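Single Protein Entry

Contents — chain, fold
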Amino acid sequence: MGALLSIPLMAVPSMGTIFGFAASCCGAATCSAVCSACGKCGNSVATRIAYALILLINSILSWIMLTPWAINKLQHLTLDYMKISCPDGECYGWVAVHRINFALGIFHIIMAVLLLGVNSSKNPRAAIQNGFWGPKIIAWLALIVVSFFIPEAFFMFWGNYIALIGATLFLLLGLILLVDLAHTWAEYCLERIDSTDSKVWRGVLIGSTLGMYAASLAMTIVQYIFFATGKCSMNQAAITLNLIFFLVVSVVSVHPAIQEYNPKAGLAQSAMVAVYCTYLTMSAVSMEPDDKNCNPLIRAQGTRTTSIVIGAVVTMLTVAYTTTRAATQGVALGGKGKSIRLPDDDEHDMVTQQPDSRREMRAQALRQAVEEGSLPADALDDDDDESDSGTNTSKDDERSSTQYSYALFHIIFFLATAWVATLLTMNIEESTKDGKDFAPVGRTYGASWVKIISAWVCYGIYTWTLVAPIVLPDRFDFS
């Protein structure tokens, strides 16, 4: 955040140093404010929001480095010692984008190593995750500065190989978690229906399924009308294949053989996968270049700069949000997920003050209510927090157990920085060919094909989750 605030001050190095440091402190204060003034949200939620903001700011800063203005300003600051170029000629901020995202990626790798084995906020190292925002902001900015002293040859290798592998893993992880979310949502609704026989939950399940199928069909019709006319063979093929795939997975999900081995499978999961993959396909055809007159959205845009800026910010917000969701959804990866775990008995039996029979009776009543399911497990933590008169930890929702794996959280953020760098530099010659304006994010054939193929892979992953119990019956038990 401080880096973004200090960009206008780069033209005056002496004052820029002073005000840049002040801006860094403001950025750190912003993160601290998010974590301390989040209202009713728990400590873990505020922390995730803060890291998402850092990723968002880093991504926007990387995107700005694609402009000739930013590169010229950077070269001016180094007294023309640093020349931003590629072997084939000018490439604007290709290397600069990878430097900035490499810096944030290394920051998250360091954080992952420091937080290995932390399983509750009572661990002293948990403060590294949830606090010390000032030093963490300064460390992030320092890594950015250091990255510009690394030879460009290293980033040629990093950008063409390491970042590409990381981006692929990030996309694959997102697809796996999407399929897991589809199964989790449907199974949760079915459990609520079975346990309560509620018409509300039955309506929610049926309504959401029909709504997602209706949205998928509506997006498919819109794509055929606006993006599949004339000689747009690529769009026609992508849209048609997506339609075929989502019809196939829908039929497979209700096939008798599938229902025999996995009775919880059904149209609810297929609908969520279909609407997401149809959205990916529509996003792909709507963001491709218009050299073949297949993208009317580009021709219909009024102010090019405004539309590109809005599109870039929305894209970065989406990446930050999906990264945070993926980093904390550990069910598909064998993590803790969101299961409720009662705290250890000795946690609430620790004597911290003069015994009080009334307080002990209240604690016993709370334990019994939690065991019967009348109260959530964190009620015990609330009771413990109230009894500790010396400290205020009422917003700490991780005293008994962390809500997510800290180390895995930072590894996924590292993969996200690789995806952002790859997205910004993919076919960069198409994005920056005019050299006079902001580069559109993802408006290349390469980015479009990545989304199209991702949709196909998502269908494949979901289909495998349906047929796997038939192929490997010993490894699955739905009884």
Observations:
- Residues 152-196 form the longest helix (45 residues).
- The radius of gyration is 26 Å.
